[in-house]
Amino acid sequence: MLGWELPPHNSGGLGVACYHMSKALALTGAKVDFVIPYRAEHPEIDFMEIHSATDLTPLDRYGLGAYDSSTVIDKTFSKADINDLKDMRGVQKRYVEYVESIALSLEPDVIHAHDWLTMEAGIRAKEITGAPLIVHVHATEFDRSGNESGNQLVHEVEYQGLIMADRIIAVSNITKNIIIEKYGIPADKIEVVHNAIDVTSFDDGYQYDLSTYKYLEALKDEGYTIISTITRFTIQKGLVNFLRAAAKACSRYDKLVFLLVGDGELRDELIELTTDLGIADKVFFTGFVRGKQWRDAYSVSDVFVMSSVSEPFGLTALEAAYHGNAIILTRQSGVGEVLNSVFRYDYWDEDVLADQMIGIATSKALKDTLKADVKKEYSKISWFDVAQTFIRIYKSMQKVGIS
Amino acid sequence: MSKRGIVLYLHAHQPLRVRKYSVFDTAINHDYFNDSVNNSGQNNEQIFKKVADKSYRPMNAVLEKLLATHPEFKLSLSITGVFIEQAEQWAPDVLESFKRLVATGRVEVVAETYYHSLAFFYSLDEFERQVEAHRAKIRELFGVETQVFRNTELSYNDSMAKWADKHGFKGILAEGWDPILEWRSPNFVYRPAGTEKIALLLKNYRLSDDIAFRFSDKNWPDWPLSADTYNDWVNTSATDKSIVNLFMDYETFGEHQWEDTGIFSFYESFINKWLENPDNTCYTVSGAIDAFEPVGEISMPKTVTWADTERDLTAWLGNSMQQEALRYIYSLEDDIMRTNDQSLIDDWSKLQTSDHVYYMCTKWSNDGDVHAYFSPYESPYDAFLYYINVVRDLRWRLHHYHKTGGLNG
Questions:
Q1: Do the interacting molecules here have an ipTM over 0.85?
Q2: Distance CA A160, CA A149 (A)
Q3: d(C-alpha A356, C-alpha B381), whole Å
């Protein structure tokens, strides 16, 4: 496995997905070697071997930015300065060189690379070992850049990775279609494997602490409905539309408050927007939270909105469902392919979102039915089924020979 | 000794679907059913015209032809008030063809609630108003009196039979469900428990559903079903019995089973074959009751319907959204009636049509089988959302009338 992050040093869903799929694969009997670009303790990981490509600390994690391709300096490998640790391309180059150095000794049956960050390393590993390359697409540059064009260099890396892959795994049909339409990859090379949720990982004695979001609890007692989203504040996430819909909803029904959990480049702009819209007192920004505060954010909220302009999957929706939220998703979110008991809207359709939020807030029956029904659905989605699918895919692939 | 016969009964209905009525319409726009968007799924005019072409026109032509060919061919129809209103606006020729059928004297019209509602279970006053409104509409349109009653979705229980008995109906229709019938056959006339004069006709669901549900199912071992085979089955079922009650939705013909499945020619040739045998005939529902005495008494203390494997009301009242929606709508009854505002009363009545809550059913989506039922909405939750926004608008209008209360939520 070639990845960019693992919990607890992740900045989003990619690390979580990599962790759970590796764990399920290991428990299914596969031997997993996982390469990451930094060095750190992973106290909960004993089911696979972690290989650190550099001696960077996890503190440098955010400097690397698993998702943030907008700051990539447009230079090719030959120009990248191998000693410039803060530079993404530099780190990627060191990552490739590390993979080149260990690839043969690991004798992989298959190389499983996650997203553009590790695609070049995957291609090199395939060239060196002759093992088949699986490129697992959690997000494309088209998703990360929202409606903008994205970084051309990243597009090229993605295109090359998709071409060189022996098999492509997409986390949703939405992503599969992007790969077909934007990169011109034949459909039969791509297999959709949806992410899952490991409910047992939540079953760790956690109890919701009412005092974490005490003010919000007080509002709930007064009949307010808490509508949350937990995400990175990037253009991909559609938060401007979300806040506009929030303002529209408040104009019709004012017992609503909005909890925006996370951080990102759009934070200041979003705060400004709430004042422009006159709903600043109804929107709560927590910043980036982890652990208990993160889980309590799910627990305090009644409704979870995934407002993404383009969301390849969207694991947070499953997490929110686990914590008893009614779920609203954009039609542009891949997780909608595995959930039926949800509201859906187009990310730009603020009136529809406002209507759905008010509908849930003003009808206990609707809220309760949504919560109960979606619980029945996510509990059927298992990482072990995902691992079984991977094993089948691995076995179907033959060594392609050293080139 | 009367001849054994098939009792053909078709139920014609189209709901007035609620458009995508949002919270931004509430208290501003009071039109709930007028969606002019093409293929929106809630464009009632477009849907009615489509079904008229696919089902009502061709099937009525088949029925007219059979009536002209066979003096013994008879059948019964129920046509809801909301259907008639839509036909009057958008397909008057369809209504004319129904009139021609009834004018033969061999097509009986069955009584029911005007709005295809579940009012019996919520408000007896409203229920009786709707039955009377339907009787009056049928009288006005066809010049006939209804004599046999069926309630929405063939829902039935002992107290409904007693009600129909007391109100002068000579017969009532229900599902011939095995757990109720046990060893008894649905192919006889029965008497509902605790009644004096009324007769009970029970749907032969196997033979009815062979046509209504299974006819075009390629996974069904008996697909494709020929008229010969089906005629054999019906003859076998009728052996030493009085009647075979074939009750189904009118829209089975052409809408649920499309023309290219051969459903029209199948039906026509089945009738031809059935009537070839001189021992066989057809009855209207009243005709069957006149021809045969009840052979025994049947009790259904709990409500039985013709829906799903459960044969109960859970498709309409199974979840809390459905229960809330109907509780809200019926709680408005007194305030609505005392406005004497006919357009408000009409809107409220149209919202009682059972289809609205059927679209909110979640029992299939939980099995992941979301395509097992038909709904014009993306999800049951959307159906509820639009409906509840309309309920709020009704409250707002009432608030305007009565200058008090009613705006909670």
A1: no
A2: 18
A3: 9
pLDDT at residue number A47:
95
* Residue B406, pLDDT above cutoff 90: no
A201-378 placed in CATH 3.10.20.30: no
Reported as a single tens digit per residue, the pLDDT across A55-85 is 888 666 545 444 555 555 455 554 454 444 4
The domain segmentation of chain B, as residue ranges, is 4-298, 315-402
Contact present, B147 and B176 (Cβ < 8 Å): no
A325-337 pLDDT per residue, tens: 999 999 999 999 9
Residues of chain A with CATH 3.40.50.2000: 13-196+383-396, 201-378
Q: Is A254 on the interface with B (CB under 8 A)?
A: no
Chain B CB contacts of A355 under 8 Å are 22-24, 385, 389
Which of A343, A344, A355 lies nearest to residue B23, judging by beta carbons? A355
A377 contacts in B (CB within 8 Å)?
366, 368
Contact B386, B21 (CB under 8 A): yes
H helices within A165-213, ranges in order?
173-183
| Nearest residue, CB atoms, A366 vs list B26, B321, B370 | B321
When scoring B19, B23, B326, B363 by the number of chain A Cβ atoms within 10 A, the one with the most, hence best to mutate, is B23
User: What's the CATH number of domain B4-298, 3.20.110.20, 3.10.180.10, 3.40.50.10490, 3.30.420.40?
Assistant: 3.20.110.20
The confidence score (pLDDT) of residue A381 equals: 87
| Residue labelled with tokens 């109907």 | B326
Omega prior to A8 cis, within 30 of 0: yes
Rounded CA-CA distance B322/A369 in Å is 10
CB atoms within 10 A of CB B101: 18
Q: Is A362 on the interface with B (CB under 8 A)?
A: yes
Out of 3.30.160.20, 3.40.50.2000, 3.40.30.10, 3.30.420.130, select the CATH number for domain A13-196+383-396. Answer: 3.40.50.2000
User: Which pLDDT band, with edges at 50, 70 and 90, does A398 fall under?
Assistant: low
Amino acid at B85: E
Identity at B233, one-letter amino acid code: W
How many helices and strands in chain A, by DSSP H and E? 15, 12
Residue A260: C-alpha distances to residues A287, A305, A347, B390 (Å):
8, 10, 17, 31
| Beta strand residue intervals within A30-146, DSSP E | 33-36, 49-52, 111-114, 133-137
